[in-house]
Amino acid sequence: MALDDVYTEVLGEHSRNPDHKHKLSCATCQMKGKNPSCGDEITIELQVEGGVVKDAAFTGVGCAISQASTDIMAELIRGKSVEDARRLANKFISMIKGELVDEDELEELDEALALKNVAHMPARVKCAVLAWHTLDDALKEQK
């Protein structure tokens, strides 16, 4: 199986069967994100305690890329410090913008690497980064 096929499979699985698409009853903060150009609209809910993202979930609608990206992000940041979660968000955004391409640097993005090729699809960049910008905005408010 080619790497692109693996990535396509990862994205398909996260968009069809998202593990983190639900309300978070214990949320300590929430933030809406919207991509007016294509109609993607999400609400990220976070449980942040003692500077750590204990849990993350989301609700909303959007294309397969935005939904998969949001689900992957929610998985990746669980258990991370607020600083680490923000750093990962910035690293992901840099990857999608094509500013960060070093494989070793990007390794910690784990399944989010499946979205790397979105950098070559300008129309889809906003779909991929919506959740990550929304996360960063939500965590900025946690300070």
* 3D shape: globular
What is the strand arrangement across the widest sheet?
1-2-3
Beta-sheet strand percentage?
15-25%
Q: Which stretches of 5+ consecutive residues score pLDDT under 50?
A: none
The largest pleated sheet is described as: 3 strands, antiparallel
CATH topology (level 3) name: Sufe protein. Chain: A
The first-level CATH class name:
Alpha Beta
Total of domains? 1
Task: List the secondary-structure elements in sequence, H or E.
Answer: HEEEHHHH
The number of helices is: 5
Mean pLDDT: 93
Our Rg estimate from Cα atoms comes to 14 Å
Helix percent reads 40-55%
**What's the N-to-C terminus distance?**
44 Å
How many strands? 3
Class of secondary structure makeup? alpha+beta
The oligomeric state of the chains shown is: single chain
CATH architecture annotation: Alpha-Beta Complex
Notable traits:
143 residues, alpha+beta, Sufe protein. Chain: A, 3-stranded antiparallel beta sheet, 5 helices, 3 strands, iron ion binding, Nitrogen fixation protein NifU
